[in-house]
Amino acid sequence: MTMPSDTDTRDTELAAQYEAYPYPERNAQDETKRLLIGSPSHLREIDYWVFGARRSRSKPLRALVAGCGTGDGAIMLATQMARSNRPGEVVCIDRSHHALSIAQARATTRELDNIRFIQASLTDLKSLELGLFDYIDCCGVLHHLPDPAATLKSLVHLLAPQGGMGLMVYAPYGRTGVYMLQDALEQLAPHTEPPAARLDTAKRVMRSLPATAWLRHNGNFGDHLSGGDAGLYDLLLNPRDRSYTIDAFLDLLSEAGLDASCLMEPARYDPTLFLPDPRLRKHLGTLSWREKAIVAEALTGNMATHVAYVVRQGERITPPDYNDFDAIPLMREIPGIELAKQMLADHTLPFTFGTLAVPIPLPPQTRGLLPLIDGQRTVGDLAEILSTRGVTEDKFRKIWNEIFPTLESLNRVLLQSPA
């Protein structure tokens, strides 16, 4: 089979798009006010979901951001590494000079010295002789490439032993309406027109979009629609925009010799959360995790992306036993005291998976235990503190065996890696 070349017409148009409208739109001065946090490539997630909380934090981390765009993931990771005195570097590759200049300006504003930028195409990785990386981010890139499978395989060759990746691809059901408008704009704003002219047409269409258009009823994403010219162009005018069901995404990983160590968030792909019917749950119990994920995506209908941490097949690292009294739990991002405040009087934690809100039941003791999780105290320390509140060790083990797996599946509580 003849594969499309890197210089096919649509790829040339894609390159022109990101020079004209780097996505997402970012202002370097905003780095003085906030740090954008997300998945993949959050440092604590990498430590846990890729390295199984077994890799020393003192060991240098060499990371590659393959297709960094204007730099959200790269800036987050480099900043988190700097703040935690983590040795290593973040190497950023993108073929758009304009996008790289924005990412570089953001890094300069933050005075990051652990990040560097290379203007190059991902199809030229071999010639760059970059060496091996412990972690590779490829977020929002594969679905725009001429040959996603080939590029993913080339990235696998850059993985160091026991290394892993963070990936994001678009998903079809949560983007209902997007591809319909893309089809219409193929006719109204042909790819042969200059980017500015195509954008003008898209804006005119959006101002007159019929009330019946599916995009008007899709509340599953807002970043593109509120992201200025770059966001609108990337959503509706991108010359190559694939989407993957979870089944197709897992097939893509398998073809590249990869396994998912985590789909983000894990609970999102568990249909038992929103199918309380006992008979349905019994049937779900007979399905594989992949089959459950397929059911969850099809039933919820709101997954606009799939985010995954992946490792080579057969290299998944099992995290330490969370019941071990020497294990150290830590909050992924939200402090325990703040997460506890979100719990309701019935001891449920309201949690949103995109536009789907699900009440997550937790033991009553969760509200008092969460503020104690600081990345320093061990599980044994938590048990000892709760013993002063009348909770026996047996009782503690029972509630902890419910609390940790639940909050882990929500990507809220993880385990600390060794120093």
TrEMBL record:
- In short, the EC number is 2.1.1.64
TM region positions = none
- Provide the alphabetized UniProt keywords: Methyltransferase, Transferase, Ubiquinone
Classification lineage: Bacteria, Pseudomonadati, Pseudomonadota, Alphaproteobacteria, Acetobacterales
Q: Which InterPro entries match?
A: Methyltranfer_dom, SAM-dependent_MTases_sf
Pfam families xrefs:
Methyltransf_31
**To which species is this protein native?**
Acetobacter tropicalis
**Name listed for the protein in its UniProt record:** 3-demethylubiquinone-9 3-methyltransferase
Q: Single GO molecular-function term?
A: 3-demethylubiquinol 3-O-methyltransferase activity
* GO annotation (BP), single: methylation
List each copy of the Methyltransferase domain by range: 63-165
